[in-house]
Design brief:
This protein has helices at 3-18, 46-49, 99-108, 118-121, 125-133, 153-171, 187-195, 240-253, and strands spanning 76-77, 86-93, 112-116, 137-140, 177-178, 200-202, 206-208, 213-215, 227-230, 257-258. The chain is an alpha/beta fold. It has a single domain (71-264), classed as Glycoside hydrolase/deacetylase (TIM Barrel), CATH 3.20.20. Helix 6 runs parallel beside helix 7 (187-195). The longest helix has 19 residues, at 153-171.
Length: 265
C-alpha cells in the first residue's frame, strides 16, 4: 500500500472510531458504483420516458404474404389476416413534423408507415428523411389529397404516379403501398394504382383520434392484424407523440405489439 493509500485508510478508520461522518468521495466520481455525474445509468429506460409501463414485445415473424388478385388491380385491405398478435401503425398526410417524434420512433424502435401527401409535407421532407433513417417507411398518399372516387383515370393516375415520382426523387425508392385520401376509391383507383407500381391499397380498421380509438367496423377493440391510422393535424394538442403513446398503451392492454406492415404486404 502506498503512503497516500495508508493515510486515506487511516482517516476513515479514525473517523469511524470517533463516530464522525466519513469524508466525501473524490470529486468527479459518484459515491455509488463509481459512476460519473450525469451518467445515463440513472436515466429511465426508453419505454418509461415515453409513458409506457413495460417495453413493447418484439414483433413475431410474418407467416406469409397475401395472394394477389387475379384481375391485375391493386388489392384493397383494412387489416391483415394473421394469427400473429400484431397491429400496424400508419400515419397520414405529413402535417406534423415534431423532432421528438423522431426520437420516439428511434428509442422504441417503432416500425411505422408514413403515408405522405406532397402538398401537405411542403418543404418538410427533411423531417421524413430523418424518420426513414431511424426505421420508418415512406408510402404514397397522393400529390394534393384529392378525393379520388369518381375522378377520370387520367386525374387519378396523375395524383398517384405524381407522388410516386416525388417520393422516388426525394428518397431514392418508389413506394409500393398507397392510401387514398378519406379512404374513398373505385375500380379506376385500383387500376391507376396498379399502373403506378402500387401493390396494395391500404385503408384502416381503427383510428387514433385525440381522445381515443374509434373503429370503422367489427368489434370496438383492437384485434390481431388491425391497421391503425393516426391522422396528422395542425393542432398543437395533443402532440403526435402523445397520441402515439396513448395508442401504444391500448396496444399493450390488448396483449398485442406493433409489426411492420411492409413485412406482411
Amino acid at each position: 500500500m502506498t503512503r497516500r493509500g495508508w493515510t486515506a485508510g487511516a482517516a476513515v478508520l479514525l473517523a469511524l472510531l470517533a463516530g464522525c461522518a466519513l469524508p466525501d468521495p473524490p470529486r468527479g466520481r459518484s459515491a455509488e458504483a463509481g459512476a460519473a455525474p450525469g451518467s445515463t445509468a440513472t436515466q429511465p429506460p426508453p419505454y418509461r420516458r415515453w409513458g409506457l409501463s413495460a417495453p413493447l414485445s418484439p414483433p413475431p415473424s410474418p407467416l406469409r404474404h397475401p395472394a394477389r388478385p387475379a384481375d391485375g388491380l391493386a388489392p384493397v385491405l383494412d387489416r391483415i389476416t394473421t394469427s400473429r398478435k400484431v397491429v400496424f401503425l400508419t400515419f397520414d398526410d405529413g402535417a406534423e413534423k415534431d423532432p421528438r417524434f423522431v426520437d420516439m420512433v428511434r428509442e422504441l424502435r417503432l416500425p411505422v408507415s408514413m403515408f405522405l401527401t406532397d402538398s401537405v409535407v411542403g418543404p418538410g421532407y427533411g423531417h421524413f428523411a430523418r424518420l426513414r433513417s431511424v426505421g420508418a417507411s415512406v408510402q404514397n398518399h397522393t400529390l394534393d389529397h384529392a378525393a379520388l372516387r369518381g375522378l377520370p383515370y387520367a386525374g387519378q393516375r396523375a395524383e398517384i404516379c405524381g407522388q410516386q415520382q416525388k417520393l422516388r426523387a426525394r428518397f431514392g425508392v418508389r413506394p409500393h403501398l398507397f392510401r387514398p385520401p378519406y379512404g374513398t376509391y373505385d375500380t379506376t383507383t385500383r387500376k391507376a394504382a396498379a399502373d403506378c407500381g402500387i401493390t396494395a391499397i391500404v385503408l384502416w380498421r381503427a383510428t387514433m383520434n385525440a381522445a381515443d380509438l374509434t373503429f370503422t367496423k367489427g368489434p370496438a377493440r383492437l384485434r390481431p392484424g388491425d391497421i391503425v391510422s393516426v391522422p396528422s393535424t395542425e393542432s398543437p394538442e395533443p402532440m403526435l407523440r402523445e397520441r402515439t403513446a396513448r395508442l401504444l398503451r391500448r396496444v399493450q392492454e390488448a396483449g398485442l405489439t406493433v409489426g411492420r406492415l411492409e413485412d406482411y404486404l
